[in-house]
Write a structure and sequence with these properties.
Oligomer: single chain
Radius of gyration: 29 Å
Shape: globular
Structural class: mainly beta
């Protein structure tokens, strides 16, 4: 009898326990319990509130109920009773501020509803970044399928937006502009300083962004947002740690990343560290027969020796390493004040300039060494936001930043004992004041002030690699130093004229100038001791958003932009291509752009979204590289070689136009079909093609998500052809970059790749990403690139939350 009573008691306890199942509600990021969460049935007949442990009793509800989970700080959730068990009796809530994916900050520096902005803006979120598995921040932009990326070496990545690139597009990180006085008109790799593993999202503005951001934002603005420090709700604490490792076969990439967040109710910190090791890149084996890396140079017994490459698909001497450190602190003493401080540090090993190392002079390679010194970037920034409705503003932010940039170039010709080195150091100081004022329920005013100062130092030397003897060399920039400044004031108005119409306008006043001093004129007999330039510019914009229905949005925007010549445009001396040298031109003026944008977004609930945009840009006084005379001479000796003199000059005008079309179609609940295609054309007034106009390019893909924790992505990327006739004159000179057509002339051939990516949540804390890029192992080079793209590339990464 006694054993039966015990057994019945145990069974009863189990049944009661099952019936009184406890459910826990936690924060989706910190995994901490949330108290005072209201849980009620759809008919309001039954309800409960979570305790200090974030728990409520499921037995209070019927099995047929749909539960509504609500908390003031978190996004509301609706869950059928039957789903609770599938969630292991744990419900994760997302902070409201995290899920506002239809809001952007890049257009005005303040959070705005995307459907009120006339500009075309593409947002790339953490989920897309993780699935694409990018090696660098340049690869993040390329994964948007709307930004074209050029590479001269493996440690490169120069974004092209609507026919503009380099110093005509703007890089911004956490609200601070990265462009400085030595951003060149040639291809740039500065975006690689940004760690893709610490990003929360990226916003790309297409078209001039000069009203808010000033000079350099002709083609667009790339606004990178690093991981925000999230303060703990309800005076709890957040302690999260993540680790990440990735391996790629195309360049034997080894990447490890770790980050840690700790915060309380009013303060917090975020620490991120990434280490990258990239080996020599392997190109594809099929397709175009050229682009081989047939030879390379090694130093053997004190002599340069040209060796045969055993595998011509391995792009010898392209490897490099890099590290990124990010430390952020946040302090919010009260509801009105929010203070953020960030420390960034990025550096690399020497980065080989692959396209130069693959140049020949007769039957021998031209260079034994050509490399960039470590890509060093350091930034400290302070941002103070104040939310308080007073006469002048409702929201105000003060931003101050300091950046230190170091660049260097080193080259030695084959058989030479002389290594030439040119080094630059830039100190960048910036201060911004930005205000947001709601004039009434329909009108918002944005205005602000900006001050920027750059100090540039340039040195050069030669080193005898046998004797270590140091000699003099001509500097890339004026050896007496340069001071560069930019001051601006702007005001912008957004008016919601009705539920269907939003009107926006803006104006910005700019003053930009520099002063450079020449000390040593023994290399070049300059007819001046200094270059001094002062430029002023006024920019304006008008935009209209029309929402005829809830499903459709039509955008129209006309805006002007400008790019003031910086130090690299006006006063540099460098070899642009073999046999050519660029010289200073103190008469250079700003280039200006007038842009017209039209766009349409059409959505059918969550099943279909269509995006169409067209643009036309008129460029006035365009800055381009052309033949030039210096002291009445058209040639000059530079680094021991007779070279044609060139300079950056203002041509009459240029016109760029294009369109993009994309859609996302949900075929079933699990399958999405998506595509995006971009077409751009551009000519100057001499009917010559513009250098940074890419061929037609795009993507088409199919994503499949059979379960919440499992997703697959199949897609093709493609580029069209640029014929010899449509290459810009400067590109026609670079035969070593391009394929040869039937007439032996350089051209950029078309290509297409097939790719596959997948992601699986092995548990709540472990995510495995794997994929294959360029499945067919196609050999190709994106337009204007100096290094071939990866061949078949197997990628695997593991993300762990500790």
């Amino acid at each position: 009898m006694y054993p039966r009573i015990v057994l019945l008691s145990m069974l009863l306890a189990v049944v009661v326990g099952l019936d009184a199942q406890t459910v826990k509600v936690v924060d989706s990021q910190a995994m901490l319990p949330i108290k005072n969460v209201t849980v009620r049935s759809m008919d309001n007949e039954r309800s409960d509130i979570t305790n200090l442990k974030g728990e409520f009793d499921l037995s209070s509800f019927n099995s047929s109920d749909i539960l509504i989970i609500q908390h003031a700080t978190y996004a509301e959730q609706f869950l059928p009773y039957s789903e609770i068990k599938n969630l292991n009796y744990q419900i994760k809530l997302k902070l409201k501020s995290v899920i506002l994916d239809e809001f952007v900050v890049s257009a005005s520096k303040w959070e705005q509803n995307k459907n009120e902005i006339p500009n075309k803006i593409v947002a790339i979120d953490m989920e897309k970044i993780a699935l694409s598995n990018p090696q660098t921040a340049a690869d993040v932009l390329a994964a948007s399928n709307e930004v074209f990326v050029q590479k001269s070496q493996l440690g490169g990545g120069s974004p092209m937006i609507r026919g503009f690139s380099a110093n005509a597009v703007l890089l911004v990180i956490d609200g601070v502009r990265m462009n400085n006085a030595i951003y060149r008109s040639g291809n740039l790799q500065n975006v690689l300083a940004i760690d893709p593993n610490s990003l929360e999202n990226v916003e790309v503005i297409f078209g001039p962004g000069s009203i808010i951001y000033g000079s350099d934002a002709l083609g667009g603005v790339m606004d990178f947002h690093t991981q925000a420090v999230r303060l703990a709700p309800l005076n709890n604490q957040i302690n999260t740690a993540k680790a990440f490792a990735r391996f790629s076969t195309a360049n034997m990439e080894q990447t490890v990343h770790a980050d840690f967040m700790h915060s309380g109710g009013d303060w917090g910190s975020y620490t991120s560290l990434t280490l990258n090791r990239f080996g020599d890149l392997r190109m594809g084996s099929g397709g175009y027969d050229g682009f081989d890396r047939a030879h390379y140079v090694e130093r053997i017994n004190g002599q340069d020796v040209m060796l045969d490459n055993e595998n011509v698909n391995i792009q010898k001497q392209s490897a490099y390493d890099q590290y990124n450190i990010l430390q952020k602190f946040r302090y919010r003493p009260n509801e009105k004040i929010d203070i953020n401080y960030a420390f960034h540090l990025t550096s690399s090993t020497d980065v080989p300039r692959y396209d130069r190392l693959n140049q020949y002079s007769s039957d021998l390679l031209k260079y034994s060494e050509w490399y960039y010194g470590p890509q060093f970037w350091h930034m400290q920034s302070l941002n103070i936001k104040v939310r308080d409705s007073v006469l002048l503003y409702d929201n105000f932010q003060f931003s101050a930043a300091y950046q230190k940039v170091k660049e260097s170039r080193h080259n030695r010709k084959f058989g030479s004992d002389e290594l030439k080195s040119r080094e630059e150091s830039v100190d960048v100081y910036s201060v911004n004041l930005d205000f947001d004022k709601s004039l009434d329920k329909k009108n918002n005013l944005f205005y602000g002030l900006e001050a920027i100062h750059n100090k540039v130092n340039s040195v050069a030397k030669t080193t005898n690699i046998h004797t270590d003897e140091i000699g003099d060399a001509s500097t890339r920039y004026p050896d007496g130093g340069t001071n560069y400044y930019a001051y601006a004031a702007y005001v912008s108005l957004k008016s919601n004229l009705s539920e269907k119409f939003t009107f926006s306008s803006g104006i910005r006043l700019n003053a930009v100038g520099l002063k450079s001093t020449f000390i040593d004129k023994s290399f070049f007999d300059f007819p001046f001791d200094e270059i001094k330039v002062d430029n002023q510019s006024v920019n304006a914009s008008l935009g209209l958003v029309f929402r005829p229905t809830k499903a459709t949005q039509l955008n129209a925007n006309i805006s002007s932009g400008f790019r003031a010549p910086n130090l690299d445009d006006i006063a540099k001396i460098f070899d642009s291509t073999p046999g050519s040298v660029v010289m200073p031109n103190e008469d250079l003026k700003p280039e200006k752009a007038i842009n017209i944008d039209l766009g349409m977004i059409h959505k059918v609930e969550d099943d279909f979204e269509l995006n169409v945009s067209v643009f036309y840009t008129s460029l006035i006084d365009a800055m381009v590289r052309r033949a030039f005379t210096f002291n009445d001479q058209s040639t000059i000796m530079y680094d021991g070689e007779l070279s044609q003199i060139e300079a950056i000059v203002n041509t009459g005008s240029a016109n760029i136009y294009g369109a993009s079309l994309g859609f996302d179609l949900k075929i079933t609940d699990e399958i999405d079909l998506y595509t995006n295609h971009s077409f751009i054309k551009g000519k100057d007034n001499e009917n010559e093609s513009l250098r940074h106009v890419p061929p037609i390019y795009g993507v088409a893909g199919l994503s499949y998500q059979p379960e919440e924790n499992l997703s697959f992505d199949f897609y093709i990327n493609y580029n069209g052809t640029i014929s010899y006739e449509n290459l810009t004159p400067t590109e026609k000179e670079k035969e070593y970059l391009y394929a040869s057509d039937e007439n032996g002339n350089p051209y950029s051939p078309s290509w297409m790749t097939l790719n596959f990516k997948s992601s699986i949540d092995l548990s709540d804390d472990v995510v495995l990403n794997a994929g294959i890029e360029n499945v067919m192992d196609v050999r190709y080079r994106p337009y204007s690139s100096g290094i071939s793209a990866p061949g078949r590339n197997f990628i695997v990464s593991l993300n762990v939350e500790l």
